[in-house]
Specification:
four-stranded parallel beta sheet, alpha/beta, Aspartate Aminotransferase, domain 1, 14 helices, 374 residues, globular, Aspartate Aminotransferase, domain 2, single chain
Protein backbone atom coordinates (compact mmCIF):
# COMPACT_ATOMS: atom_id res chain seq x y z
CA UNK A 1 0.00 0.00 0.00
CA UNK A 2 1.19 3.58 -0.64
CA UNK A 3 3.65 4.96 1.89
CA UNK A 4 4.75 1.71 3.47
CA UNK A 5 8.09 2.06 1.68
CA UNK A 6 8.85 4.93 4.06
CA UNK A 7 8.77 3.09 7.39
CA UNK A 8 11.78 4.30 9.34
CA UNK A 9 13.15 6.30 12.25
CA UNK A 10 9.99 8.36 12.74
CA UNK A 11 7.83 5.29 13.29
CA UNK A 12 10.40 3.72 15.62
CA UNK A 13 10.53 6.91 17.71
CA UNK A 14 6.73 6.92 18.11
CA UNK A 15 6.69 3.25 19.16
CA UNK A 16 9.52 3.79 21.64
CA UNK A 17 7.51 6.62 23.23
CA UNK A 18 4.70 4.14 23.93
CA UNK A 19 7.01 1.41 25.22
CA UNK A 20 8.65 3.89 27.60
CA UNK A 21 5.34 4.28 29.41
CA UNK A 22 4.21 0.65 29.37
CA UNK A 23 0.67 1.85 28.54
CA UNK A 24 -0.64 0.24 25.35
CA UNK A 25 -4.30 1.06 26.09
CA UNK A 26 -5.60 4.22 24.43
CA UNK A 27 -7.81 5.36 27.34
CA UNK A 28 -7.16 6.35 30.96
CA UNK A 29 -3.96 5.55 32.97
CA UNK A 30 -3.29 9.28 32.96
CA UNK A 31 -0.69 9.24 35.74
CA UNK A 32 1.46 6.52 34.20
CA UNK A 33 1.54 7.60 30.56
CA UNK A 34 3.61 10.80 30.90
CA UNK A 35 1.15 12.70 28.70
CA UNK A 36 1.78 10.34 25.75
CA UNK A 37 -1.48 9.79 23.82
CA UNK A 38 -0.69 8.32 20.43
CA UNK A 39 -4.29 7.58 19.39
CA UNK A 40 -5.15 11.23 20.01
CA UNK A 41 -2.07 12.27 18.03
CA UNK A 42 -3.12 10.03 15.14
CA UNK A 43 -6.62 11.50 15.15
CA UNK A 44 -5.21 15.03 15.20
CA UNK A 45 -2.98 14.30 12.20
CA UNK A 46 -5.93 12.82 10.28
CA UNK A 47 -7.95 15.97 10.99
CA UNK A 48 -5.12 18.13 9.62
CA UNK A 49 -5.05 16.18 6.36
CA UNK A 50 -8.81 16.01 5.83
CA UNK A 51 -10.05 19.18 7.48
CA UNK A 52 -12.48 17.08 9.51
CA UNK A 53 -13.94 18.49 12.72
CA UNK A 54 -13.83 15.06 14.39
CA UNK A 55 -11.77 11.89 13.93
CA UNK A 56 -11.94 8.50 15.62
CA UNK A 57 -9.12 5.99 15.17
CA UNK A 58 -10.22 2.36 15.39
CA UNK A 59 -8.50 -0.99 15.04
CA UNK A 60 -8.74 -1.27 11.25
CA UNK A 61 -10.64 -0.11 8.18
CA UNK A 62 -13.18 -2.92 8.46
CA UNK A 63 -14.08 -1.77 11.96
CA UNK A 64 -14.29 1.81 10.71
CA UNK A 65 -16.95 1.13 8.09
CA UNK A 66 -18.95 -1.07 10.47
CA UNK A 67 -18.86 1.61 13.16
CA UNK A 68 -19.86 4.35 10.72
CA UNK A 69 -22.83 2.32 9.52
CA UNK A 70 -23.88 1.41 13.07
CA UNK A 71 -23.62 4.99 14.28
CA UNK A 72 -25.75 6.02 11.30
CA UNK A 73 -28.52 3.80 12.64
CA UNK A 74 -28.20 1.05 10.05
CA UNK A 75 -29.56 -2.25 11.32
CA UNK A 76 -31.83 -5.23 10.82
CA UNK A 77 -33.74 -5.24 7.55
CA UNK A 78 -32.38 -1.95 6.23
CA UNK A 79 -31.30 -2.01 2.60
CA UNK A 80 -27.87 -0.51 2.01
CA UNK A 81 -26.77 0.21 -1.57
CA UNK A 82 -23.22 -1.03 -2.08
CA UNK A 83 -20.76 -1.35 -4.96
CA UNK A 84 -19.95 -4.82 -6.33
CA UNK A 85 -16.36 -3.61 -6.73
CA UNK A 86 -14.90 -2.96 -3.28
CA UNK A 87 -12.91 -4.63 -0.57
CA UNK A 88 -15.13 -7.37 0.85
CA UNK A 89 -15.24 -5.74 4.31
CA UNK A 90 -17.77 -3.20 3.04
CA UNK A 91 -20.29 -5.95 2.41
CA UNK A 92 -19.38 -7.89 5.54
CA UNK A 93 -20.05 -4.82 7.69
CA UNK A 94 -23.55 -4.41 6.25
CA UNK A 95 -24.33 -8.09 6.83
CA UNK A 96 -22.96 -8.13 10.39
CA UNK A 97 -25.33 -5.30 11.33
CA UNK A 98 -28.33 -7.29 10.09
CA UNK A 99 -28.78 -5.08 7.04
CA UNK A 100 -29.25 -6.19 3.44
CA UNK A 101 -26.65 -5.33 0.77
CA UNK A 102 -28.13 -4.15 -2.52
CA UNK A 103 -25.63 -3.94 -5.38
CA UNK A 104 -25.66 -1.10 -7.90
CA UNK A 105 -23.63 -0.23 -10.99
CA UNK A 106 -20.35 1.68 -10.94
CA UNK A 107 -19.04 4.04 -13.63
CA UNK A 108 -15.55 4.84 -14.91
CA UNK A 109 -14.69 6.64 -11.66
CA UNK A 110 -14.69 3.03 -10.31
CA UNK A 111 -17.26 4.19 -7.74
CA UNK A 112 -21.04 3.91 -7.54
CA UNK A 113 -22.84 6.04 -10.12
CA UNK A 114 -25.89 8.16 -9.39
CA UNK A 115 -27.67 6.41 -12.25
CA UNK A 116 -26.88 3.00 -10.82
CA UNK A 117 -28.01 4.01 -7.34
CA UNK A 118 -31.36 5.34 -8.55
CA UNK A 119 -32.19 2.07 -10.31
CA UNK A 120 -32.03 0.00 -7.10
CA UNK A 121 -33.72 2.33 -4.58
CA UNK A 122 -36.77 0.79 -2.89
CA UNK A 123 -38.96 1.81 0.08
CA UNK A 124 -36.59 -0.22 2.30
CA UNK A 125 -33.47 1.67 1.20
CA UNK A 126 -31.94 3.47 4.16
CA UNK A 127 -28.35 4.20 3.16
CA UNK A 128 -25.69 4.24 0.50
CA UNK A 129 -22.25 2.89 1.31
CA UNK A 130 -20.07 4.76 -1.15
CA UNK A 131 -16.54 3.44 -1.62
CA UNK A 132 -13.93 5.70 -3.21
CA UNK A 133 -11.97 2.99 -4.99
CA UNK A 134 -8.35 2.90 -6.13
CA UNK A 135 -7.35 6.35 -4.89
CA UNK A 136 -9.98 8.36 -6.73
CA UNK A 137 -13.26 10.07 -5.96
CA UNK A 138 -16.88 9.63 -7.01
CA UNK A 139 -19.13 12.13 -8.76
CA UNK A 140 -20.32 13.52 -5.45
CA UNK A 141 -22.62 16.29 -6.72
CA UNK A 142 -24.71 13.78 -8.66
CA UNK A 143 -24.75 11.27 -5.80
CA UNK A 144 -25.61 13.87 -3.15
CA UNK A 145 -28.58 14.97 -5.25
CA UNK A 146 -29.93 11.40 -5.05
CA UNK A 147 -29.18 11.22 -1.32
CA UNK A 148 -31.13 14.40 -0.64
CA UNK A 149 -34.00 13.54 -2.97
CA UNK A 150 -34.62 10.21 -1.23
CA UNK A 151 -33.58 11.29 2.30
CA UNK A 152 -30.91 8.60 2.56
CA UNK A 153 -27.89 8.23 4.82
CA UNK A 154 -24.53 8.41 3.04
CA UNK A 155 -21.63 6.52 4.59
CA UNK A 156 -18.32 6.91 2.77
CA UNK A 157 -15.58 4.31 2.77
CA UNK A 158 -12.40 6.18 1.86
CA UNK A 159 -9.97 3.49 2.98
CA UNK A 160 -8.39 3.44 -0.48
CA UNK A 161 -8.57 7.19 -0.99
CA UNK A 162 -7.07 8.89 2.06
CA UNK A 163 -6.09 12.47 1.12
CA UNK A 164 -8.37 12.39 -1.94
CA UNK A 165 -10.99 15.13 -2.15
CA UNK A 166 -13.92 16.39 -4.18
CA UNK A 167 -14.11 20.12 -4.87
CA UNK A 168 -12.09 20.86 -1.75
CA UNK A 169 -13.89 18.47 0.60
CA UNK A 170 -11.95 15.39 1.70
CA UNK A 171 -13.44 12.00 0.91
CA UNK A 172 -14.87 10.17 3.92
CA UNK A 173 -15.94 13.15 6.03
CA UNK A 174 -18.97 11.46 7.55
CA UNK A 175 -18.61 10.45 11.22
CA UNK A 176 -21.26 10.14 13.89
CA UNK A 177 -21.09 10.86 17.61
CA UNK A 178 -22.19 7.38 18.70
CA UNK A 179 -19.23 5.78 16.90
CA UNK A 180 -16.90 6.70 19.79
CA UNK A 181 -18.97 4.76 22.30
CA UNK A 182 -19.91 1.98 19.89
CA UNK A 183 -16.24 1.12 19.30
CA UNK A 184 -15.45 0.75 23.01
CA UNK A 185 -18.17 -1.41 24.60
CA UNK A 186 -20.50 1.60 24.87
CA UNK A 187 -18.23 3.69 27.15
CA UNK A 188 -18.99 7.42 27.13
CA UNK A 189 -15.34 8.32 27.98
CA UNK A 190 -16.35 10.98 30.47
CA UNK A 191 -14.14 11.33 33.54
CA UNK A 192 -10.91 9.51 34.44
CA UNK A 193 -12.33 6.39 36.12
CA UNK A 194 -13.12 3.87 33.42
CA UNK A 195 -14.96 1.58 35.80
CA UNK A 196 -17.48 4.32 36.60
CA UNK A 197 -18.23 5.48 33.07
CA UNK A 198 -21.76 5.35 31.73
CA UNK A 199 -22.76 3.39 28.63
CA UNK A 200 -25.20 5.24 26.35
CA UNK A 201 -25.30 2.38 23.81
CA UNK A 202 -24.37 -1.28 23.45
CA UNK A 203 -21.03 -1.54 21.69
CA UNK A 204 -18.09 -3.81 21.03
CA UNK A 205 -14.29 -3.58 21.02
CA UNK A 206 -12.88 -1.88 17.93
CA UNK A 207 -10.31 0.18 19.82
CA UNK A 208 -6.95 0.97 18.28
CA UNK A 209 -3.89 0.27 20.42
CA UNK A 210 -1.34 2.96 21.23
CA UNK A 211 1.32 1.00 19.31
CA UNK A 212 -0.72 0.93 16.11
CA UNK A 213 -1.71 4.56 16.57
CA UNK A 214 1.95 5.50 17.00
CA UNK A 215 2.77 4.12 13.56
CA UNK A 216 -0.37 5.72 12.13
CA UNK A 217 0.55 9.15 13.47
CA UNK A 218 4.06 8.99 12.02
CA UNK A 219 2.79 7.77 8.65
CA UNK A 220 0.03 10.38 8.45
CA UNK A 221 2.54 13.19 8.90
CA UNK A 222 4.23 11.92 5.73
CA UNK A 223 1.04 11.87 3.64
CA UNK A 224 1.42 15.34 2.01
CA UNK A 225 4.93 14.51 0.79
CA UNK A 226 3.86 11.02 -0.32
CA UNK A 227 0.89 12.42 -2.24
CA UNK A 228 3.03 15.07 -3.95
CA UNK A 229 5.55 12.46 -5.12
CA UNK A 230 2.83 9.98 -6.11
CA UNK A 231 0.99 12.52 -8.24
CA UNK A 232 4.21 13.42 -10.04
CA UNK A 233 5.04 9.77 -10.70
CA UNK A 234 1.50 8.98 -11.80
CA UNK A 235 1.49 11.93 -14.20
CA UNK A 236 4.73 10.70 -15.78
CA UNK A 237 3.37 7.20 -16.31
CA UNK A 238 0.05 8.45 -17.61
CA UNK A 239 1.76 10.78 -20.10
CA UNK A 240 3.97 7.97 -21.43
CA UNK A 241 1.20 5.39 -21.63
CA UNK A 242 -1.17 7.83 -23.34
CA UNK A 243 1.05 7.44 -26.40
CA UNK A 244 -0.20 3.86 -26.82
CA UNK A 245 -3.35 3.74 -28.92
CA UNK A 246 -5.96 1.71 -27.02
CA UNK A 247 -4.87 2.62 -23.48
CA UNK A 248 -7.28 4.79 -21.53
CA UNK A 249 -7.61 5.62 -17.84
CA UNK A 250 -10.31 5.72 -15.18
CA UNK A 251 -12.02 9.02 -14.58
CA UNK A 252 -12.16 11.18 -11.44
CA UNK A 253 -15.14 12.99 -10.00
CA UNK A 254 -12.71 15.87 -9.45
CA UNK A 255 -9.30 15.77 -11.16
CA UNK A 256 -7.81 18.08 -8.54
CA UNK A 257 -8.75 15.69 -5.73
CA UNK A 258 -6.74 12.65 -6.82
CA UNK A 259 -4.82 10.94 -4.00
CA UNK A 260 -2.32 9.63 -6.54
CA UNK A 261 -2.17 6.16 -5.04
CA UNK A 262 -3.16 4.18 -8.15
CA UNK A 263 -2.73 4.37 -11.90
CA UNK A 264 -5.92 2.82 -13.26
CA UNK A 265 -5.60 1.65 -16.85
CA UNK A 266 -8.68 0.81 -18.92
CA UNK A 267 -8.07 -1.46 -21.89
CA UNK A 268 -10.61 -1.60 -24.77
CA UNK A 269 -12.28 -4.79 -23.53
CA UNK A 270 -11.94 -7.68 -21.09
CA UNK A 271 -10.16 -10.01 -23.51
CA UNK A 272 -7.51 -7.39 -24.30
CA UNK A 273 -7.00 -6.78 -20.59
CA UNK A 274 -6.49 -10.50 -20.02
CA UNK A 275 -3.95 -10.66 -22.87
CA UNK A 276 -2.17 -7.68 -21.31
CA UNK A 277 -1.95 -9.48 -17.97
CA UNK A 278 -0.47 -12.50 -19.75
CA UNK A 279 2.15 -10.28 -21.36
CA UNK A 280 2.95 -8.65 -18.00
CA UNK A 281 3.50 -12.06 -16.45
CA UNK A 282 5.76 -13.18 -19.30
CA UNK A 283 7.81 -9.99 -19.02
CA UNK A 284 8.07 -10.13 -15.22
CA UNK A 285 6.10 -6.91 -14.69
CA UNK A 286 4.79 -6.69 -11.11
CA UNK A 287 2.97 -4.26 -8.85
CA UNK A 288 -0.43 -4.46 -10.56
CA UNK A 289 -3.89 -5.80 -9.77
CA UNK A 290 -6.36 -7.30 -12.20
CA UNK A 291 -9.50 -6.90 -10.13
CA UNK A 292 -11.79 -8.87 -12.46
CA UNK A 293 -10.35 -12.13 -11.15
CA UNK A 294 -9.40 -10.86 -7.69
CA UNK A 295 -10.85 -13.05 -4.94
CA UNK A 296 -11.81 -10.35 -2.44
CA UNK A 297 -12.43 -7.12 -4.39
CA UNK A 298 -14.99 -8.15 -7.01
CA UNK A 299 -18.35 -9.86 -6.67
CA UNK A 300 -17.69 -12.48 -9.38
CA UNK A 301 -15.53 -14.38 -6.90
CA UNK A 302 -17.64 -13.78 -3.76
CA UNK A 303 -19.22 -17.22 -3.65
CA UNK A 304 -19.49 -17.08 0.15
CA UNK A 305 -21.50 -13.85 -0.11
CA UNK A 306 -23.71 -15.02 -2.98
CA UNK A 307 -24.35 -18.31 -1.20
CA UNK A 308 -24.67 -16.71 2.27
CA UNK A 309 -22.15 -19.12 3.74
CA UNK A 310 -21.87 -18.06 7.39
CA UNK A 311 -20.42 -19.30 10.64
CA UNK A 312 -23.60 -18.29 12.48
CA UNK A 313 -27.05 -17.29 11.28
CA UNK A 314 -27.38 -13.71 10.03
CA UNK A 315 -30.52 -11.61 9.65
CA UNK A 316 -30.38 -11.84 5.86
CA UNK A 317 -30.88 -15.61 6.11
CA UNK A 318 -34.19 -15.04 7.91
CA UNK A 319 -35.35 -11.96 6.04
CA UNK A 320 -34.10 -12.98 2.61
CA UNK A 321 -31.80 -11.03 0.31
CA UNK A 322 -33.29 -8.18 -1.69
CA UNK A 323 -31.55 -9.36 -4.86
CA UNK A 324 -30.56 -12.65 -6.43
CA UNK A 325 -26.82 -12.33 -5.88
CA UNK A 326 -26.13 -15.11 -8.38
CA UNK A 327 -27.91 -13.21 -11.16
CA UNK A 328 -27.19 -9.51 -10.74
CA UNK A 329 -27.85 -7.18 -13.66
CA UNK A 330 -24.64 -5.13 -13.64
CA UNK A 331 -23.32 -5.15 -17.22
CA UNK A 332 -21.58 -1.78 -16.95
CA UNK A 333 -19.68 -2.89 -13.87
CA UNK A 334 -18.67 -6.17 -15.50
CA UNK A 335 -17.36 -4.30 -18.54
CA UNK A 336 -15.46 -1.67 -16.56
CA UNK A 337 -13.81 -4.02 -14.07
CA UNK A 338 -13.01 -6.46 -16.88
CA UNK A 339 -11.04 -3.71 -18.65
CA UNK A 340 -9.33 -2.40 -15.50
CA UNK A 341 -5.67 -2.94 -14.56
CA UNK A 342 -4.38 -0.96 -11.56
CA UNK A 343 -0.79 -0.20 -10.65
CA UNK A 344 0.04 0.96 -7.12
CA UNK A 345 2.12 4.14 -7.26
CA UNK A 346 5.31 4.29 -5.19
CA UNK A 347 6.70 7.61 -4.00
CA UNK A 348 10.28 6.23 -3.96
CA UNK A 349 10.52 5.38 -7.67
CA UNK A 350 13.55 6.85 -9.37
CA UNK A 351 13.37 8.46 -12.81
CA UNK A 352 15.09 5.42 -14.30
CA UNK A 353 12.64 3.04 -12.62
CA UNK A 354 9.70 5.05 -13.94
CA UNK A 355 11.05 5.02 -17.48
CA UNK A 356 11.69 1.28 -17.33
CA UNK A 357 8.20 0.55 -15.97
CA UNK A 358 6.52 2.78 -18.56
CA UNK A 359 8.45 1.08 -21.36
CA UNK A 360 7.54 -2.40 -20.14
CA UNK A 361 3.85 -1.57 -19.72
CA UNK A 362 3.78 0.04 -23.19
CA UNK A 363 5.51 -2.93 -24.81
CA UNK A 364 3.21 -5.48 -23.19
CA UNK A 365 0.05 -3.50 -23.90
CA UNK A 366 1.07 -2.98 -27.54
CA UNK A 367 1.46 -6.74 -28.01
CA UNK A 368 -1.92 -7.38 -26.38
CA UNK A 369 -3.60 -4.70 -28.49
CA UNK A 370 -2.44 -6.06 -31.85
CA UNK A 371 -5.67 -8.01 -32.52
CA UNK A 372 -7.67 -4.87 -31.65
CA UNK A 373 -5.63 -2.39 -33.68
CA UNK A 374 -5.13 -4.70 -36.68
Amino acid sequence: MPGTELFGAEERKEIEDVLSTGILFRYNHDAQRNNIWKAKDFEAEAKKITGAKYALAVSNGSAAILAALAASGIGTGDEVICPPFTYIATIEAVLMLGALPVFAEIDETLCLSAEGIKKVITPKTKAICLVHMCGGNANMDEIMAVVKQHNLKLVEDAGQAFAASYKGTATGLFIYKLADSYCDHGHDHIGNNRGMENHPVIGFNYRISELHAAVGAAQTRKVPAIREANLKNKAFLQKELSKVEGINFSKLGDDNGDSGTFLNILMPDTETAKRTIDEFNKAGVGGFNYWFTNMYHFINQWEHIKGLKTASKLAIQTLGASQDYHNLDIPKTQAIVGRLISFGIRCTWTEEELKTLAAKISECATKALKPVNA
